């Protein structure tokens, strides 16, 4: 079982930045990977960023070049740095962990106004 707690969501303007944090009950180094999903109103949940325990990063086309996923040295906290935010980035963002199955946090709302 992996417990995840996100923080850092909020309301920002077009073009601004925001950083989400996720504290996990296990280090990424004991998992396969951690990352971030998001779900916008009326849309399916989608993966936006993944960080493997070896440091490999995977991004969706929608956020590549604007978002960066990282972890602290201990691997218990992962971050999603979001730059150049757009209204279409508005969604509930979920921290994720992969350890034989997918775990998700409770989510944090990100709203980008134009």
Overview of this structure, please?
The protein has 114 residues and is mostly beta strands. The protein is 0% helix and 53% strand. It has no helices and 11 strands. It has strands at residues 4-7, 10-13, 18-24, 33-39, 46-52, 57-59, 67-71, 77-82, 91-98, 102-104, 108-113. Strands 2, 4, 5, 6, 9, 10 and 11 form a 7-stranded mixed sheet that branches. A hairpin with a 4-residue loop joins strand 5 and strand 6 (57-59). The protein is globular. The mean pLDDT is 96.
Provide the fold topology.
Blueprint: E1 4-7, E2 10-13, E3 18-24, E4 33-39, E5 46-52, E6 57-59, E7 67-71, E8 77-82, E9 91-98, E10 102-104, E11 108-113
Parallel strand pairs: 2-11
Antiparallel strand pairs: 1-3, 3-8, 4-5, 4-9, 5-6, 7-8, 9-10, 9-11
Defining key terms:
114 residues; globular; 4-stranded antiparallel sheet; 0% helix; 7-stranded mixed sheet; 53% strand; single chain; mainly beta
Strand content: over 45%
Q: pLDDT below 50 for ≥5 consecutive residues: which ranges? A: none
Shape from CA axes? globular
What's the total helix number? Answer: 0
**β-strand number:** 11
Rounded radius of gyration (Å): 13 Å
Distance between the termini: 39 Å
């Amino acid at each position: 079982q992996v417990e995840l707690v996100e923080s850092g969501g909020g309301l920002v303007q077009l073009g601004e930045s925001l950083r989400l944090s996720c504290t996990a009950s296990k280090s990424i180094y004991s998992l396969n990977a951690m990352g971030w999903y998001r779900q916008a109103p009326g849309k399916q949940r989608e993966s936006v960023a993944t960080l493997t325990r070896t440091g490999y990063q995977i991004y969706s086309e929608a956020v590549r070049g604007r978002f960066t996923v990282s972890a602290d040295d201990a691997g218990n906290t992962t971050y999603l740095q979001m730059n150049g935010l757009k209204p279409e980035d508005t969604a509930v963002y979920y921290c994720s962990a992969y350890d034989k199955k997918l775990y998700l946090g409770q989510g944090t709302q990100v709203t980008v106004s134009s």
